């Protein structure tokens, strides 16, 4: 009887232990070494094996080979007999199974990666585009161009494969084949420009082809009356062309409406990317690195469009990139007397320039000093030197220029800064003003 009682009590005690909730315990799961990429030490999503037998994550090893230009195995240092990684389906399947088993610990199953685009696939698409182009199948060409763009965006490897198989040439020829005058062609032309922006930078053959009169006219036409995205892509392509080859500037400027289209993107901005590209394109036109006979004529045209006033307004509140490019263009416009006259007449010019000194970047400081120096010389030539000096001193220019000489700058900027200090020093007794907030967060190395 006592034995039965003890058995029942032991059973009740066991049930209490069984039903009692244990406190939550954090369990840390370690990713197996086999599943980690030797480069990033993170869980591999697309494991591939090199000729040395070592497995890496595709993204990391392709960056090592193609972007860094290495031809050796990252782990062993052995020269690779083949630069083409081979998918390791066994490891990938093991990683997927492990992720499923450890789903409760926050590991989601990695998706099976799509097979990379092959050269054969690209060649077939391009051949179809050429055939459809010959038959005037606009919709079919547009659909395939969109497909190419999507493939380019998949990975850097896909982009290299697509570019190396002649895609830029086919896109450029297709751009020339379809005339913008036919309204049915507008969408495919804009799509081609969109595709060209994702395969930047261009090789020499592509740039030479896009400099053709027909291609340039199409780009300018879209830049003028295209959709917002079309105008954005057109100026991105144009910026690339002007940045890498300035021997064709005159051909571009002869196209009707080309200058006005660029200026309009500044006067009526679409987005920061478009504004930056437009400013850079104009910068190469007003400050060419080569001898350009029409430079003064171009600058005069931009001045007549009100570009000086717009640039000064932008300087009041803009990002670093826009500020640097806007000042670069403004300095180019101030390379002729008419540009200096426009800048001098604007009440915001000198305060905006002084405000940018030592606040944004070294290049904005150099541009600002250069423009202030040119304005000072211009004012002196028209007998109004004191006006510029007084206005600059009132907004704290003297102290900033003096500090600039101490924190370091290029020899040309230092020379111009010294000239400004000499000229303004003669008028310091007439005004006493400084914006102390400009120096609040400035790191002084002395």
TrEMBL record:
Record-given protein name = U-box domain-containing protein
Tell me what organism the protein belongs to: Helianthus annuus (Common sunflower)
Q: Write out the GO MF terms.
A: ubiquitin protein ligase activity
Q: SUPFAM superfamilies this protein is in?
A: ARM repeat (SSF48371), RING/U-box (SSF57850)
Superkingdom of source: Eukaryota
InterPro entries registered for this protein in UniProt: ARM-like (IPR011989), ARM-type_fold (IPR016024), ARM_PUB (IPR058678), PUB22/23/24-like (IPR045185), RING-Ubox_PUB (IPR045210), Ubox_domain (IPR003613), Znf_RING/FYVE/PHD (IPR013083)
Protein function: Functions as an E3 ubiquitin ligase.
Source taxonomy: Eukaryota, Viridiplantae, Streptophyta, Embryophyta, Tracheophyta
What catalytic activity is recorded?
Answer: S-ubiquitinyl-[E2 ubiquitin-conjugating enzyme]-L-cysteine + [acceptor protein]-L-lysine = [E2 ubiquitin-conjugating enzyme]-L-cysteine + N(6)-ubiquitinyl-[acceptor protein]-L-lysine
Query: Which biological process, per GO, is one annotated for this protein?
Result: protein ubiquitination
Q: Which PROSITE patterns match?
A: U_BOX (PS51698)
């Amino acid at each position: 009887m006592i034995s039965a009682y003890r058995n029942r009590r032991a059973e009740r005690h066991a049930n209490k232990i069984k039903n009692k909730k244990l406190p939550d315990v954090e369990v840390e799961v370690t990713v197996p070494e086999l599943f980690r990429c030797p480069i990033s030490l993170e869980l591999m999503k697309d494991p591939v094996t090199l000729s040395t037998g070592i497995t890496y994550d595709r993204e990391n090893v392709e960056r090592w080979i193609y972007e860094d230009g290495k031809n050796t195995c990252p782990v062993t240092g052995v020269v690779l007999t083949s630069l083409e990684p081979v998918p390791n389906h066994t490891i990938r399947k093991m990683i997927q199974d492990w992720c499923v088993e450890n789903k409760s610990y926050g590991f989601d199953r990695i998706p099976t990666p799509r097979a990379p685009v092959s050269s054969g696939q690209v060649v077939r698409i391009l051949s179809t585009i050429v055939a459809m182009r010959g038959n005037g199948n606009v919709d079919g060409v547009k659909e395939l161009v969109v497909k190419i763009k999507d493939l380019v965006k998949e990975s850097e490897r896909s982009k290299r494969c697509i570019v190396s198989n002649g895609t830029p040439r086919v896109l450029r020829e297709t751009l020339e084949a379809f005339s913008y005058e036919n309204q049915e062609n507008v969408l495919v032309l804009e799509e081609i420009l969109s595709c060209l922006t994702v395969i930047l930078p261009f090789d020499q053959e592509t740039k030479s082809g896009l400099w053709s009169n027909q291609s340039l006219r199409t780009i300018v036409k879209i830049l003028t009356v295209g959709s917002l995205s079309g105008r954005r892509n057109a100026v991105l392509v144009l910026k690339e062309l002007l940045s890498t080859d300035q021997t064709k500037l005159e051909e571009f400027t002869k196209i009707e409406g080309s200058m006005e289209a660029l200026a309009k993107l500044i006067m009526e901005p679409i987005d920061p990317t478009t504004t930056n590209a437009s400013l850079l394109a104009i910068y190469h036109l007003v400050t060419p690195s080569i001898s350009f006979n029409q430079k003064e004529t171009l600058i005069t045209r931009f001045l007549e469009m009100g570009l000086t006033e717009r640039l000064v307004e932008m300087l009041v509140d803009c990002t670093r990139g826009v500020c640097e490019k806007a000042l670069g263009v403004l300095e180019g416009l101030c390379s002729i007397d008419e540009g200096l006259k426009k800048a001098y007449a604007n009440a915001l010019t000198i305060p905006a320039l002084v405000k940018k000194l030592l606040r944004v970047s070294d290049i904005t400081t150099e541009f600002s000093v250069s423009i202030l120096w040119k304005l000072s010389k211009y004012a002196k030539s028209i007998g109004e030197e004191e006006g510029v000096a007084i206005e600059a001193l009132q907004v704290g220019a003297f102290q900033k220029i003096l500090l600039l000489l101490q924190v370091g700058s290029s020899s040309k900027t230092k020379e111009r800064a010294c000239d400004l200090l000499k000229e303004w020093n003669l008028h310091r007794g007439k005004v006493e003003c400084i914006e102390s907030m400009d120096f609040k967060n400035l790191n002084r190395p002395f």
